[in-house]
Design goal:
It is a single chain. The chain is of the alpha+beta class and 283 residues long. Helix content is 42%, strand content 17%. It is built from eight helices and nine strands. The chain has helices spanning 6-19, 55-70, 109-123, 133-145, 155-174, 211-215, 231-249, 259-276, and strands at 24-32, 36-42, 45-51, 87-89, 92-98, 180-182, 191-194, 197-200, 207-209. The strands form three sheets. A five-stranded antiparallel sheet has the order 1-2-3-5-4, with helices on both faces. A two-stranded antiparallel ribbon has the order 6-9.
Length: 283
């Protein structure tokens, strides 16, 4: 989020929580990217605040969170003390969630894999309309086609990203792998180690696709403990994922700290992955 907007976003979180009946007069921003996460006290709730233009995404996340909680998924839950909905205030979309204290110890690869397996098992029972993973790829390709939004991306790198996205999307979909509802981005930053066990958060990225697309976002050693993984499909999904997140870092509106530095590093990693796995994307 733009630094100049954060104070207003925090005030929107406090006002929304108070209007919903929660006691909230102190706020701490605990995460800042394209939206912010704010811990509210003394209610000890978590507010996720995005720009109002992303209202539809916030509403989708609330519905996903509600459905997955009902299914017993290992996910962070909406705050049970308030109505599960999006609060619009001062140009922001605010949703209220349970705050979880993170344990200092890390999550082992077997624990990570088991949590992801449980998540997929419960998600497989949820019937709801969700984007396909190829819709997320299309969003990245749209960004590459918009030079106004990606002015710092060179022509050669733009072509490499385009060809990688096109080629790997076609290859993955042609495999005909079984598909289901997925988290979309179950990377370590979206997995909390809590007293009740590992919990996945940030559900706005949910989409449909093969489970390998999700596994691709986890550390590589996690896949060793997830049964039945298609290794060739996983390699393609990992490389596709790398091309997608690299593309998003070139967006001039991207708010991720050190985004440009990461974009350059990931481009190098992408070339290495394509060479190591001998993936022909028509370079």
């Amino acid at each position: 989020m733009r630094p100049s907007d954060i104070p207003r976003a925090v005030e929107a979180a406090l006002a929304s929580a108070s209007a919903a009946g929660l006691s909230a007069d102190d706020a701490t921003v605990i995460n800042d990217s394209n939206q912010i996460a704010v811990r509210l006290l003394p209610a000890d709730a978590l507010a996720r605040v995005a720009y109002e233009v992303h209202q539809a995404g916030a509403e989708f996340e609330v519905e996903v969170g509600r459905r997955l909680t009902q299914a017993g998924s290992p996910v962070g839950t909406l705050d049970p003390r308030v109505e599960p909905r999006v609060h619009l205030r001062d140009g922001f979309a605010v949703t209220l969630w349970t705050y979880y204290e993170s344990l200092p110890s890390g999550i082992t690869p077997p624990e990570y894999a088991q949590a992801l397996l449980r998540l997929h098992a419960s998600m497989g029972q949820v019937e709801m309309v969700a984007p396909h993973f190829t819709d997320r790829v299309a969003s990245a390709r749209s960004l590459l086609a918009d030079r106004v939004r990606t002015p710092e991306l060179g022509d050669a790198d733009r072509e490499l990203l385009n060809k990688t996205l096109d080629s790997l999307t076609a290859s993955i979909t042609s495999r005909g792998a079984e598909e289901q509802l997925l988290h979309g981005e179950p990377h370590p930053g979206n997995l909390l180690h809590t007293r009740t066990g590992p919990l996945f958060v940030d559900l706005e990225t949910c989409c449909r696709g093969p489970v390998e697309f999700d596994i691709a976002h986890a550390p590589e050693e996690v896949a060793e403990h997830y049964p039945g993984v298609d290794e060739d499909l996983l390699v393609e999904c990992r490389t596709l994922m790398l091309a997608m997140i690299t593309t998003w870092r070139w967006d001039r509106e991207d708010q991720l700290p050190n985004g440009r530095q990461l974009a350059a590093e990931w481009l190098s990693q992408l070339r290495t992955a394509l060479d190591r796995h001998r993936l022909d994307v028509g370079r």
